[in-house]
Amino acid sequence: MGMVKLIKVSNFFTAIKSSRGLKNLTPNLGFFKSSHFYAKSQAGSDFSGESMGLVKRVAQKNVGIFWDLDNKPPKSFPPYDAAIRLKKAMIEFGFVKYLIAYANRHSFSYVPPEVLAQRKERKALNQWEKKGIVKPNVPYICRVCGRKFYANEKLINHLKQIHESEQRKRLNQIESARGKRRVNLVAKYSLKMDKYRNAARDILTPKVGYGLADELKRAGFWVRTVSDKPQAADVALRSHLVDMMDKRLVDCVVLVSDDSDFEGVLKEARERCLRTVVVGDINDGALKRAADAAFSWQEIMMGKAKKEAVSVVERWKDRDVLKRLEWTYDPETERELCYSDVASDDSDVEDYFSGDDDGSVQQEDAGAWWKLEHNTRKR
Predict the structure, then answer these.
(1) How far is CA 351 from CA 286, 354, 357, 358, in A?
(2) How many whole angstroms separate alpha carbon 305 and alpha carbon 294?
């Protein structure tokens, strides 16, 4: 009957539409969406799967990565690759929402010995190519225009003389424009500017030290440089972390450091029922003992941490279930429950201890229990 009513109402509205100028009276099939059969047929559709996926994403925990660059720069690995691998591994714990790194100026000027050796070899190779002693098997290709060169210095000069000047002209046009024209210029030159930046990043852009700050920013980290005072980065990172815990912005704290000064912060995070993960190279450190899970940089780069994170999450779920089933003894609560049960029962126990005499029991004025009765009657 309900479906028949819906059909009548639907035909009524289509009749009104046809009276307004529509030539053909087309049946309205919208009632199927509210019928039981439509709901049944759509139960296993992609829409329901997308909605379930959305609910799952909403229920995910917020993960914050806090990187102490003073104590734990990626010395053995390229910083951009290390940051990307770290993010991929920590995604297993939830939605990586915050990426924060602190360091002073000296940390950003650090260059690993392997990189110093590579730069020295590249400089010597440029001189040999310039003199014609060495010729590369594969020519150097300009990533902007595709032109080929058989010397690295010629490629550098080509980028500086032609493409760098073109990039400067584009930026000047955008800076001088206003309003809609500026928006149109940005849309027009965006691909060309990105193409030049990608080509010039490794060749023309001067790197301070290892290029640590720029590489981490490119990976999505918020990088903050602090003063050169001792422990300045640790203090700033610790205060930032505590502030985010107070505001309940993170559910899982990932600390990239080997500094034992952060042990108190990790213990405080666990007391607040937050998940804690440490990334460092010290196997038996105080931080790893205080955290729920710990990984080394080798495990992060090899992808082993991403696989082990799944088992860590399952272990956390089991711990939560056991915690909900845990019974705790509270003396005050148990005493109140016990007295309330006794007071509610209408039994003779209360009358017995109340001192009321109903005549059936004769009370004798007996003495103390330690006094014996010496006067016995003789028959």
Answers:
(1) 63, 5, 9, 10
(2) 9
